[in-house]
Amino acid sequence: MATQALRRRFLTYELGLLSLNAALSTRDKDWPIYDESAKFHQRSKAKKAFREVLEDVQTNYVQGDVTERAHNRRIVDVADHLSAQLEDHLYQGRFRIGISQKLVNVHLKYLWAAGLCSEPPHCPIDGIIRDRAKIEYYWTRSDSISEYKRAIASLRRLGNGRSLAAWELEEFGRRGDRVTV
C-alpha cells in the first residue's frame, strides 16, 4: 500500500477514535450509552459495530455533498441499525437519536477539518453548543428526529447565514478553555 493511503488510513482510524470518545462519553449519569449489565470487556461487539458505522459514514460523505434530508435519514438509520444490532448492550435497548447525531456529526467535523471530506450539512450538538446557543436540546436523552430538527433550525437562526459547520467551529474557538499553540 502506498504511503499516502497508509497515512489516510491511519488518520481516519485515529479520527474515528476521537469521534467515538466524543459521542460515547457523556456526563449524564441518568442516561448512559450502555446498559449497566454490559461490562467494559464485553463491548467488543459494540466497538466493531460503531467502527462499521463510521466507515459507512465516511464512505458516503467523501463521495460528495449530502442533502440535509439524506443527512437526517442517516442519523435515524444509524440509531436504528445500532439499536437492532446492540440492543442487549445499550441502555433501554436503544441507541438514541441524540447520540447518533453526535457520532455522525462529530466524525464528519473531524474528517472535514482534516480535509478528508466536504463541509458537513450540520454540526454536532452537545452540551457546549446547546448552552452557547441557549436552546433546549438534551442530546444524551433525545430519541426524536423532530427535536433534533428543531435544534438545527434554532442554530441556523443564530448562524446568520453562515453554515452550521463554520458557525460551530467559530463558537468552539471562543471557548474559555481553548489551547493556543
Give an account of the 3D structure.
This protein has 181 residues and is mainly α. Helix 2 runs antiparallel to helix 3 and helix 2 crosses helix 4. It has one domain.
The count of domains is 1
Give the DSSP E fraction (strand runs of 2 or more residues).
under 5%
> For the CA atoms, what is the radius of gyration?
16 Å
Summarize the helix and strand pattern as letters. HHHHHHH
Largest sheet: none
> How far apart lie the N and C ends?
33 Å
Poorly predicted ranges (pLDDT <50, ≥5 residues)?
A: none
Helical coverage, percent range = 55-70%
Mean pLDDT score: 89
Derived from helix and strand composition plus strand pairing, the structural class reads mainly alpha
Number of strands: 0
In terms of topology, how is this protein built?
Layout: H1 3-24, H2 44-62, H3 68-86, H4 97-113, H5 127-133, H6 145-159, H7 164-173
Output the keywords:
7 helices; mainly alpha; globular; 181 residues; single chain
